[in-house]
Design goal:
The structure holds 3 protein chains of 3 kinds. By secondary structure, chain A is an alpha/beta fold. Chain A is 29% helix and 25% strand. In chain A, the strands form 3 sheets. In chain A, strands 6-7-8-3-9-10-13-12 form an 8-stranded mixed beta sheet, sandwiched between helices. In chain A, strands 2-1-4-5 form a 4-stranded antiparallel beta sheet. Chain A has a two-stranded antiparallel sheet with strand order 11-14. The longest helix of chain A has 16 residues. Chain A is globular, with a radius of gyration of 21 Å. In chain B, 37% of the residues lie in helices and 23% in strands. Chain B is built from 11 helices and 10 strands. In chain B, the strands form 2 sheets. A 6-stranded mixed beta sheet of chain B has the order 6-7-8-3-9-10, with helices on both faces. Chain C is mostly helical. Chain C has a domain of 205 residues: MetI-like (MetI-like fold, Orthogonal Bundle), CATH 1.10.3720. Chain C contains 15 helices and 1 strand, in the order αααααααααααααααβ. In chain C, α2 crosses α14, α5 runs antiparallel to α9 and α11 packs parallel to α12. The longest helix of chain C is centred in the N-terminal third of the chain and has 37 residues. Chain C starts with 9 loop residues before the first helix and ends with a strand. Classes of the chains: A alpha/beta, B alpha/beta, C mainly alpha. Chains in contact: A-B, A-C, B-C. Chains A and B meet through α3, α5, α6, α7 and α8 of A and α7, α8, α9, α10 and α11 of B. Chain B: GO terms for molecular function: ATP binding; ATP hydrolysis activity. Chain B: InterPro entries: AAA+_ATPase (IPR003593), ABC_transporter-like_ATP-bd (IPR003439), ABC_transporter-like_CS (IPR017871), P-loop_NTPase (IPR027417). Chain B: It holds the Pfam family ABC_tran. Chain B: Keywords: ATP-binding, Nucleotide-binding.
């Protein structure tokens, strides 16, 4: 197997509530990203995927606290729970140069009074005060040329750009410093399909050009992930329940939650025309008081007695990890999908 | 309960329930005007789901708001059951809204956060002018129809419900009015995939069992494929393609429809035909860090 | 005839409504909304000041042995055991006059501030929600009123009020009405902007589709969203109305023959209290006036904290306890991690 670029070990992050009780949004998660690959982080809203991205980018700010976990990245090992509580004090090179986060909705956060070029200069200067304006812009326009994007975009204001172009620009800007790892949170969710495709193609080109050596792509949209990622990690209620090569997860799901998510995907195909999907019964659990045992058991069609009492351990089948009692009893068996056909 | 269904079932199948003819909407903006909906004509047939598919800015939501009479048309006519409703007002408009209801995109913004679910539902029912016993019964029935229990839901405030539950309450609200036409304006786009499917299933059942006419507005052609009988594709305010779902999705004629379909990501990762191995040497030299 | 309930479809699809709270808040019991508000120390301090002054104004006169119209001495008698703050220019007890003045100033503020808020909110909400030509018209009127120098109007009207014979308008009420109808435009403009943004929310469309009429929508769907804003605007209007009344009265334009903080200052200046060193004549009303406006402005800014969740500070005691617990948990977790890391069990 290829060398690992990033490995997060036993990461736990909590939100401090006013009442004094902590709500664990990410619970003892271990995650690995091999060099040169794109890892997809998927799950429904509230599963902790954005929180995990924030913690990995080392910008957890109160009321979010990382209470445990280390991050091995690019040869360094960082204890995430002992980072300064105010994220602005975290050693700069780690942010932006080692790990760069593209937050959700970043494209709507561009100041309407600045040209894109001003944003480029600001971002470069924030990391290195001695960069001249010309150097910063040169680098940006080289980068745009390399990605076959029009350089005149640099002279535009945000409102003059389409949503797709804005999103591609913030992606380019957030990777100008050639970060080892880019964490992109829902970069495609607000975009039309054609803009989604353009962004995905650009991201693939960037990885191919080794602008960054790995990407964590966070979204709830499985078809997008299956287009762009090499590996997938599925999160449910703060835990990673299944991880492995994208093809393996898509074609051979080993956790019932993954299978349910996959069956809910509606492609414009003949199959979708005739199928009837049942969806997942119930609602995601309250993270302040999660169900005992396997957190998915109250909504799971395959739940057994043991599921409600004991938390399943991560099991491995080759390069495919999952935490499910049913899967343990049925080795190498794909979880049957909950779909009927007319 | 009986009249809920009878009227819809009795509706004539050949003539459209609701139709828009040459509807245009122009917005004035600084230094000119924008045509959001350009001369659109669409017919809605009883007991069918018609999906309007288009990307942002295609004018699909503007069309919906005009059909709902929440926004005046610039020109054109909207006909409901053979009657021109383009310029209705006052009590006539309220009577129109007894028959034509809607569910909107944002399940949180659709609620007045200061009212409980029960308060909101009962308020809506005033339009239907029922006595109290019938009201409670109807609420119970309609909440049951979307998989909610009235005892659990009635006293809840919107912030105590999940997104999916909120959207189902909104569907129940629309159903209570005993509508003949339901407009769902991106009603599923803010929901998680599994919830989305269950809301789509509700709409499907309503069409099959209550003979409800549904106008389903979406940017997601996959959802249209799952649910719709007919598909209208809009681009820049114009209808570029209109036909049965099978025709439009499996044998698209217009270039825009073809492109839209080609760009939809699918689970088998059609784009991921890479020419390199992960970890292999780069094809393009990376820009040096300190050039 | 089909019975709806016989077709209940989704019960199996999605299961029953899960009664547990989906909000991530731990044990978020259904507390009344006001209990979730954050009443910080700033709020208590400002409320304390206002309550003390209100007690002085409304309860004080009942307990104090002298009345404000009771001649107890001569010009500027120095403070003594009997008369804590001495006497003013007419020989009345300063404390008694101060209490009566404070009461009148507060009543004036309440009347004028409430009137300005009611007019401003009414015009702002209607203009912001309905829009179109009505908005143009109402905002035109608002801007005209705003453009007229209100102090000039105030002076002109209060001078004519002084010479009026209608008893109702002659006193403090008349002045309050004048202040009220000249100071609403700021509230109207601010409320219009807020109402305009609320009116684009989807719940307004839902209310329309539910058959609600415009007045009902304004009261039930627009106003509640502006409530916190309106309360804060009202508090500001109270403070500025009290100051406006004092300014006018001090200039000698207040209703003659009534007590108010401004009137007290007016007489103190007229009878040379500053020059003669009779501080007890001018200092007490100045201090009370300062305290009232400070209390109200401080209340306004602390209300911002109450209503705006972003400015809320967590309950410190809870947060400190949680931080300690977290440290403890982190230590435990670290120890666990030192145990064999082989959590992965290979089954194939």
């Amino acid at each position: 197997m290829t060398k690992s670029l990033m490995r997060a070990n036993n990461l736990t992050a909590v939100y401090a509530a006013d009442s004094g009780q902590d709500v664990p949004a990410v619970d003892n998660v271990t995650l690995e990203l091999p060099e040169g690959q794109i890892l997809g982080l998927a799950g429904e809203s509230g599963c902790g995927k954005t929180t995990l991205g924030t913690a990995l980018a080392m910008i957890a700010n109160p009321p979010l606290y990382v209470v445990a976990g280390t991050l091995e990245i690019d040869g360094n090992e960082i204890n995430l729970s002992t980072l300064p509580k105010n994220a602005n004090q975290v050693h700069r090179p780690y942010r932006g140069e080692t790990v760069s986060l593209l937050p959700q909705g970043a494209m709507n956060a561009i100041s309407p009074t600045l040209r894109i070029r001003d944003l480029v200069v600001d971002v470069m200067r924030a990391h290195n005060g001695s960069v001249t304006k010309a150097d910063a812009l040169d680098r940006a326009s080289d980068r745009l040329k390399m990605l076959e994007m029009p350089t005149r975009v640099l002279d535009s204001y945000a409102h003059q750009l389409s949503g797709g172009m804005k999103q591609r620009m913030v992606t380019v800007i957030s990777t100008l410093l050639n970060p080892a790892l880019l964490i992109a949170d829902e970069p495609t969710s607000a975009l039309d399909v054609s803009s989604q495709k353009a962004l995905i193609e650009m991201l693939l080109a960037m990885v191919e050009a080794k602008i960054m050596r790995g990407v964590i792509f966070i979204t709830h949209d499985l078809p997008v992930l299956s287009m762009v990622t090499d590996r997938l990690a599925i999160m449910y209620a703060g835990k990673v329940v299944e991880t492995g090569r994208t093809e393996d997860l898509v074609n051979n799901a080993r956790h019932p939650y993954t299978a349910a998510l996959l069956s809910s995907v509606l492609d414009p195909t003949e199959d979708t025309r005739t199928k009837h999907v049942l969806g997942i019964p119930g609602s995601p659990p309250n993270l302040g008081n999660p169900p005992s045992g396997c957190r998915f058991h109250p909504r799971c069609k395959f739940a057994m007695d043991v599921c409600s009492t004991t938390e399943p351990k991560m099991l491995s089948e080759g390069d495919h990890d999952f935490a499910c009692w049913w899967a343990k009893e049925h080795p190498r068996e794909t979880i049957p999908m909950e779909v009927t056909h007319a | 309960m009986t009249e809920i269904v009878s009227a819809a079932v009795a509706a004539d199948h050949s003539t459209p329930v609701l139709s828009a003819k040459d509807v245009t909407k122009t917005f004035k903006v600084a230094g000119g005007s924008i045509t959001a909906v350009d001369n659109v004509s669409v017919d809605f047939h009883a007991g069918k789901v018609l999906a309007v598919v288009g990307e942002s800015g295609s004018g699909k939501s503007t069309l919906a708001r005009m059909l709902l009479r929440l926004m005046p048309v610039t020109s054109g006519t909207i006909t409901y059951q053979g009657k021109d409703v383009t310029n209705l007002g006052g009590s006539e408009l309220r009577r129109y809204w007894r028959d034509v209801q809607a569910v909107f995109q944002d399940p949180f913004a659709s609620f007045n956060q200061f009212f409980s679910v029960g308060h909101m539902l009962k308020r809506s029912l005033r339009l239907a002018e029922l006595d109290k016993g019938t009201e409670d019964q109807l609420i119970e029935t309609c909440l049951g129809y979307v998989g909610l229990k009235s005892a659990d839901a009635m006293h809840k405030y919107p912030h105590q419900l999940s997104g999916g539950q909120r959207q189902r309450v909104m569907i129940a609200r629309a159903l209570m009015m005993n509508p003949k036409v339901l407009l769902a304006d991106e009603a599923t786009s803010m929901l998680d995939a599994s919830l989305r499917v269950s809301v789509l299933n509700v709409l499907q059942e309503l069409r099959d069992n209550l003979h409800l006419t549904v106008l389903f507005i979406t940017h997601d052609i996959g959802q249209a494929c799952y649910l719709a009988d007919e598909v209208v594709v809009m681009e820049h305010g114009l209808v570029v393609e209109h036909g049965t779902t099978d025709e439009v999705i499996f044998t698209p004629q217009h270039d825009y429809t073809k492109r839209l379909l080609a760009d939809v990501p699918d689970l088998q990762g059609s784009l991921k035909t890479r020419s390199w191995e992960p970890g292999a040497p780069a094809h393009v030299p990376p820009p040096a860090k300190d050039s | 005839m089909t019975n709806i309930s016989s077709n209940a479809v989704t019960a199996e699809a999605e299961g029953p409504l899960v009664p547990t709270d989906p909000t991530p808040g731990p044990k978020a019991k259904a507390k009344p909304a006001w209990m979730n508000l954050n009443f910080g120390p700033r709020l208590w301090v400002s409320l304390g000041i206002i309550v003390v002054i209100a007690l002085l104004a409304f309860v004080g006169p009942l307990l104090y042995p002298y009345g404000p119209d009771e001649k107890v001495g001569s010009l500027y008698d120095a403070p003594s055991a009997a008369h804590w703050l001495g006497t003013e220019n007419f020989g009345y007890d300063v404390v008694a006059v101060l209490m009566a003045s404070t009461r009148n100033s507060l009543i004036n503020g309440l009347l004028a501030g409430t009137l300005a808020t009611v007019i401003g909110v009414g015009i702002g909400v209607v203009a912001g929600y309905i829009g179109g030509w009505l908005e143009e018209l109402l905002m035109g009127i608002t801007n005209i009123v705003l453009a007229i120098p209100s102090i000039v109007i105030l002076i002109l009207i209060s001078m004519s009020l002084q010479s009026t014979d209608i008893p109702f308008f002659k006193g403090i009420v008349g002045l309050a009405l004048v202040i009220g109808i000249t100071s609403w435009p700021w509230t109207a403009r601010a409320v219009r902007a807020q109402a305009s943004s609320v009116s684009t929310r989807e719940h307004i469309d839902v209310a329309k589709l539910s058959g609600a009429r415009t007045p009902g929508i304004l009261i039930r769907d627009v106003l509640p969203y502006l409530a916190s804003y309106v309360v804060m605007a009202w508090v500001l209007q109270l403070a500025s109305a009290i100051l406006a009344e004092s300014t006018l009265s001090m200039l000698g334009l207040g209703p003659s023959g009534t007590n108010s903080l401004g009137m007290q200052l007016h007489w103190a200046l007229a009878f040379q209290s500053v020059a003669t060193g009779a501080w007890w004549a001018f200092l007490p009303p100045t201090i009370v006036l300062t305290l009232i406006s400070f209390g109200l402005l401080y209340l306004q800014s602390s209300l911002d904290e109450v209503f705006n969740p972003r400015l809320r500070r967590g309950k410190k005691k809870n947060l400190a306890a949680a931080a300690k617990r977290r440290e403890e948990a982190a230590r435990k977790l670290e120890e666990e991690m030192k145990a064999p890391a082989g959590v992965t069990e290979v089954i194939v």
